[in-house]
TrEMBL record:
<feature type="transmembrane region" description="Helical">
    <location>
        <begin position="99"/>
        <end position="115"/>
    </location>
</feature>
<dbReference type="InterPro" id="IPR009936">
    <property type="entry name" value="DUF1468"/>
</dbReference>
<keyword id="KW-0812">Transmembrane</keyword>
<dbReference type="Pfam" id="PF07331">
    <property type="entry name" value="TctB"/>
</dbReference>
<protein>
    <recommendedName>
        <fullName>DUF1468 domain-containing protein</fullName>
    </recommendedName>
</protein>
<feature type="transmembrane region" description="Helical">
    <location>
        <begin position="36"/>
        <end position="55"/>
    </location>
</feature>
<feature type="transmembrane region" description="Helical">
    <location>
        <begin position="7"/>
        <end position="24"/>
    </location>
</feature>
<feature type="transmembrane region" description="Helical">
    <location>
        <begin position="120"/>
        <end position="138"/>
    </location>
</feature>
<feature type="domain" description="DUF1468">
    <location>
        <begin position="5"/>
        <end position="147"/>
    </location>
</feature>
<keyword id="KW-0472">Membrane</keyword>
<keyword id="KW-1133">Transmembrane helix</keyword>
<feature type="transmembrane region" description="Helical">
    <location>
        <begin position="76"/>
        <end position="93"/>
    </location>
</feature>
């Protein structure tokens, strides 16, 4: 039954998405329903694909999922928990200290969790260079305002 959780989740998401799509405001110029077509198409496509996914997983519902067993062994639970904690810290710091510094801290900490202390120079360089290049690309080249 564990296999059916994700298809059911996506079916619920697609239904909520479709309901919210039909609440979009009508266009004042041209076709009144124009802004509705593309989001509704995406919603219907997601719903159809989710139902197909549900049927595929229903056929395999008795099989053991080896990937789930692997998630619960070794270092993986630690990596998942550490990543989730770092994401929450990143979200908390993002508005307070800005994109550049919070991204450096988040990426640096995540790289230390994944790669360990042995690759400390590589972790720091990747975190700093990636953050600066990303900030420069968005803030300066694309003129996107970042916190």
């Amino acid at each position: 039954m564990f296999r059916l959780i994700m298809p059911l989740f996506f079916i619920i998401i697609s239904i909520v998405y479709l309901v919210l799509t039909f609440d979009l405001p009508k266009a004042k110029i041209g076709n009144a329903n124009g802004p509705l077509y593309f989001p509704a198409l995406i919603g219907f496509f997601l719903l159809i694909m989710s139902v197909i996914y549900l049927f595929q997983e229903w056929k395999k519902r008795k099989e053991v999922i080896e990937e789930v067993k692997q998630l619960l062994t070794g270092r993986t639970p630690y990596l998942i928990a550490a990543t989730l904690i770092l994401i929450f810290i990143y979200a908390f710091l993002f508005e307070r200290i800005g994109f550049l510094y919070s991204t450096m801290l988040f990426l640096g900490a995540l790289l230390f969790v994944v790669n360990g202390k042995k690759h400390w120079l590589q972790n720091i360089l990747v975190a700093v260079i990636f953050s600066i290049v990303t900030w420069y690309s968005f803030a300066e080249l694309l003129s996107v305002s970042l916190p």
